């Protein structure tokens, strides 16, 4: 196959999985299409560096991760303003006692994961996070919590990475507290 | 009151919860770990938060590994057509 034919067959075969992954990461269809377009353009111009022994989709997914990080860096240039005063008073102590409510979860939450309603609530709570934090959180888990890699890729300082993770999880905890645990 | 003073002197909850993130990612230093452990001994709020964090970590890892997205076949087809046009095949 020529390079053009090969690329064409990749577009046919892999547009679906790439778009799904991009949409999952970015939560926006237009952004996802832009990023996947970038992936194919990069694959076209970097075709010679592709080693035929590896899987094309694996290679394209790796480009997608890089392009998503580029997109993120461009879109969220400013350093985040992360405030914790919703959760802590001026001495840095917890403001509310709802943290003390027992979740009654055994085995670190295995049965929660099998509960469709819980998963739905969790997704809604995740959706409420600002997209800058949401993308970072997803990338953090996709990269298996390798903090240095994530902070470098997204061009966020490690200090801010910790702060964003901390703040996001505080919010998720509170959201689940109100919308799930205090109800069930 | 004593609890509050201890918190401010050694480590406020707002910072202890940040150290929990580092601990979770295995990048916490020995000194930070010591500070966090002492804090956890005296603070039931943070002890409880840490338990909840472990649950949260587990459910997030699971939910992020399953990619649920909504994009339909015709949108994918439109994209393919545009892409092929763009590359001029």
Could you explain how this protein is built, in words?
- The complex is a heterodimer of chains A (184) and B (89).
- Chain A is mainly α.
- Chain A has helices at residues 3-26, 29-45, 56-75, 110-113, 116-127, 131-142, 147-154, 158-181.
- The longest helix of chain A is centred in the N-terminal third of the chain and has 24 residues, at 3-26.
- In chain B, 79% of the residues lie in helices and 0% in strands.
- In chain B, helix 3 packs across helix 4 (44-65).
- The termini of chain B are far apart.
- The mean pLDDT of chain B is 87.
- At the A-B interface, helix 1, helix 2, helix 5, helix 6 and helix 8 of A face helix 1, helix 2, helix 4 and helix 5 of B.
H/E element string of chain A? HHHHHHHH
Class per helix and strand makeup of chain A = mainly alpha
Total count of helical runs of at least 4 residues of chain A: 8
Shape of chain A: elongated
| Helical percentage of chain A | 55-70%
Structural class of chain B: mainly alpha
**Helix/strand order of chain B, N-terminal first:** HHHHH
Largest interface: A-B, 57 and 50 residues
The N- to C-terminal Cα distance of chain B equals: 74 Å
| Rg result of chain A | 20 Å
User: Shape of chain B, please?
Assistant: elongated
